């Protein structure tokens, strides 16, 4: 009996030892670019709002945008899930961000090269405020937003379409960036 108890105790200690081992480079986040890609893919399966990465050019200038893409799922979006007159992270999960390697013009105003989180302030009527903020790496989106880090704010008029987009999308297309979700279309002029 004592021998069986000792074997069980050794097996338990070995199991605990294996469970407490540090992650290998293959499983740890950010170990390399290849690791980051596989981490994103693995976490994609578990995210209700999948990470989207769009890359393109506007007037010969490279742009990439990273955002969580939530779905409508039968919910009332505007004025409910996304309140009016309150800063919105313009996506889901972490803050949406844009990476621009050279200066661009947004709605006629200069935005210097860099990485910026993208926020909006939805309005029930009239133009929305689009915000580019220097603090681009925010885990919890608008919950960590700080207005003092705003680099550029512009006013953009939304349009409302008859068809509905189930998933939020931010596309690099004419006139620059176009945000679509539910019946919203928010075209942001970029040059």
Automatic annotation (TrEMBL):
Keywords: Signal. PROSITE patterns: PROKAR_LIPOPROTEIN (PS51257). Residues 25-48 are annotated as: Disordered. It holds the Pfam family DUF2911. The keyword Signal applies. InterPro entries: DUF2911. Residues 1-19 form the signal peptide. Residues 25-36 have a biased composition (Polar residues). This is DUF2911 domain-containing protein. It comes from Algoriphagus boritolerans DSM 17298 = JCM 18970. The lineage of its organism: Bacteria, Pseudomonadati, Bacteroidota, Cytophagia, Cytophagales.
């Amino acid at each position: 009996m004592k021998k069986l108890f000792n074997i069980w105790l050794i097996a338990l200690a070995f199991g605990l030892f294996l469970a407490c081992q540090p992650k290998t480079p293959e499983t740890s986040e950010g170990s390399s670019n290849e690791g980051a890609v596989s981490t994103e893919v693995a976490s994609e399966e578990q995210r209700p709002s999948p990470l989207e990465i769009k890359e393109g050019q506007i007037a010969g200038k490279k742009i990439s945008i990273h955002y969580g893409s939530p779905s409508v799922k039968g919910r009332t979006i505007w004025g409910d899930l996304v309140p009016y007159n309150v800063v919105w992270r313009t996506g889901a999960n972490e803050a949406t961000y844009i990476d621009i390697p050279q200066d661009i013009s947004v709605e006629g105003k200069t935005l210097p090269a860099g990485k910026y989180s993208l926020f909006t302030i939805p309005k029930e009527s009239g133009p929305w405020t689009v915000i580019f903020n220097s603090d681009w790496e925010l885990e919890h989106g608008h919950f960590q937003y700080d207005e003092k880090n705003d680099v550029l704010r512009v006013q953009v008029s939304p349009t409302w379409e008859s068809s509905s987009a189930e998933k939020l999308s931010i596309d690099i297309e004419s006139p620059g960036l176009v945000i679509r979700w539910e019946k919203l279309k928010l075209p942001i002029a970029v040059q």
